[in-house]
């Protein structure tokens, strides 16, 4: 019964996130913001709402900080697997795609995020902010994210020329966006509680459960949106959604660290270190996918290595 409930909630996460993505796309067509900013920040933030609220529930309601690390780090590797998996079937079309320059920069910032988390685990330095103590790594993560957002806001290197007419007014779009966002928050909180019960039943560690069950389920929005975007030939938006979501996921650790008053969110354990190591490797391979875009063999090799990295990280974490 608990597994059936998990599947139902996962399906709802996909449905609600796809609808939210549609309304963000509508806003894109009614504003003058850059395409890179819309895909890499707004759409990425929307499809990362499940990771955000499931992680906050893990620390506030379940007292499981390890679940947060597994969720975020597992989701990030799985997200890159989405790109890799798609390119195994669409590498020819990808060679002629136009990508924003900011995607490569976002990946580099993502690698920097992994370094910051590593330092936060092995060289923790707490800073007092009133009644709470925060790991300095959390502050650095927020700073790096904001720096990347500033860069993406002005990236017009792959601006869309889609003139599709949107009949909804901006006000109507915003109301529907808020309603679907509230529903997504509620489903995400339930999904966290169900995952915690599955972890107990299967006697899995919190980090492993987060990486497998939460990491995959909360990445379904990115998966659905990216497949659809590639289907219509928009590789740029698909890449922006994935790499932007990954960077947004990192600041979830910062929020969780601020809200978790019982201790630090950056926990030193073998499964976390595996996810960090293979996460960095996957980021470098994704950089290779962009760098060698015209070389189909290189793209396929990097894609296979990303997929192998995710499988290996899960196996070694169990």
From TrEMBL:
<keyword id="KW-0812">Transmembrane</keyword>
<feature type="transmembrane region" description="Helical">
    <location>
        <begin position="36"/>
        <end position="60"/>
    </location>
</feature>
<feature type="transmembrane region" description="Helical">
    <location>
        <begin position="272"/>
        <end position="290"/>
    </location>
</feature>
<keyword id="KW-1133">Transmembrane helix</keyword>
<feature type="domain" description="Sodium/calcium exchanger membrane region">
    <location>
        <begin position="175"/>
        <end position="317"/>
    </location>
</feature>
<dbReference type="GO" id="GO:0005262">
    <property type="term" value="F:calcium channel activity"/>
</dbReference>
<dbReference type="GO" id="GO:0008273">
    <property type="term" value="F:calcium, potassium:sodium antiporter activity"/>
</dbReference>
<feature type="transmembrane region" description="Helical">
    <location>
        <begin position="106"/>
        <end position="123"/>
    </location>
</feature>
<dbReference type="InterPro" id="IPR044880">
    <property type="entry name" value="NCX_ion-bd_dom_sf"/>
</dbReference>
<dbReference type="GO" id="GO:0006874">
    <property type="term" value="P:intracellular calcium ion homeostasis"/>
</dbReference>
<protein>
    <submittedName>
        <fullName>Cation transporter</fullName>
    </submittedName>
</protein>
<feature type="domain" description="Sodium/calcium exchanger membrane region">
    <location>
        <begin position="4"/>
        <end position="149"/>
    </location>
</feature>
<dbReference type="InterPro" id="IPR004481">
    <property type="entry name" value="K/Na/Ca-exchanger"/>
</dbReference>
<dbReference type="Pfam" id="PF01699">
    <property type="entry name" value="Na_Ca_ex"/>
</dbReference>
<feature type="transmembrane region" description="Helical">
    <location>
        <begin position="129"/>
        <end position="152"/>
    </location>
</feature>
<feature type="transmembrane region" description="Helical">
    <location>
        <begin position="72"/>
        <end position="90"/>
    </location>
</feature>
<feature type="transmembrane region" description="Helical">
    <location>
        <begin position="239"/>
        <end position="260"/>
    </location>
</feature>
<feature type="transmembrane region" description="Helical">
    <location>
        <begin position="204"/>
        <end position="227"/>
    </location>
</feature>
<dbReference type="InterPro" id="IPR004837">
    <property type="entry name" value="NaCa_Exmemb"/>
</dbReference>
<keyword id="KW-0472">Membrane</keyword>
<dbReference type="GO" id="GO:0005886">
    <property type="term" value="C:plasma membrane"/>
</dbReference>
<feature type="transmembrane region" description="Helical">
    <location>
        <begin position="173"/>
        <end position="192"/>
    </location>
</feature>
<feature type="transmembrane region" description="Helical">
    <location>
        <begin position="6"/>
        <end position="24"/>
    </location>
</feature>
<feature type="transmembrane region" description="Helical">
    <location>
        <begin position="297"/>
        <end position="316"/>
    </location>
</feature>
């Amino acid at each position: 019964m608990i597994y059936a409930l998990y599947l139902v909630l996962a399906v709802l996460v996909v449905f609600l996130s796809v609808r939210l993505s549609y309304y963000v796309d509508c806003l894109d067509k009614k504003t003058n913001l850059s395409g890179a900013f819309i895909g890499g920040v707004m759409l990425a933030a929307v499809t990362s709402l499940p990771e955000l609220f499931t992680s906050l529930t893990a620390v506030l309601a379940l007292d499981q900080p390890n679940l947060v690390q597994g969720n975020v780090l597992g989701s990030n590797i799985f997200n890159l697997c989405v790109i890799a998996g798609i390119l195994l079937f669409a590498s020819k079309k990808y060679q002629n795609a136009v990508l924003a320059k900011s995607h490569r920069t976002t990946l580099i910032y993502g690698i920097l995020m992994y370094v910051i988390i590593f330092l936060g685990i092995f060289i923790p330095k707490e800073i007092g902010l009133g009644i709470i103590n925060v790991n300095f790594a959390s502050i650095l993560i927020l700073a790096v994210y904001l720096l990347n957002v500033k860069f993406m806001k002005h990236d017009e290197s792959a601006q869309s020329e889609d003139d599709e007419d949107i009949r909804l007014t901006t006000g109507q779009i915003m109301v529907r966006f808020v309603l679907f966002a509230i529903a997504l928050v509620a489903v995400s909180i339930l999904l966290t509680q169900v995952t915690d019960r599955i972890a107990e039943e299967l006697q899995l560690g919190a980090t492993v459960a987060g990486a497998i069950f939460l990491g995959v389920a909360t990445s379904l929005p990115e998966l659905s949106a990216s497949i659809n975007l590639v289907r219509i030939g928009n590789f740029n938006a698909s890449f922006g959604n994935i790499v932007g979501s990954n960077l947004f996921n990192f600041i979830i650790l910062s929020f969780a660290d601020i809200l978790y008053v019982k201790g630090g969110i950056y926990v030193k354990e073998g499964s976390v270190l595996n996810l960090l190591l293979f996460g960095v490797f996957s980021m470098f391979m994704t950089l290779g996918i962009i760098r060698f875009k015209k070389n189909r063999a290189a793209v396929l090799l990097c894609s296979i290595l990303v997929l192998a990295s995710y499988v290996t990280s899960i196996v070694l974490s169990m």
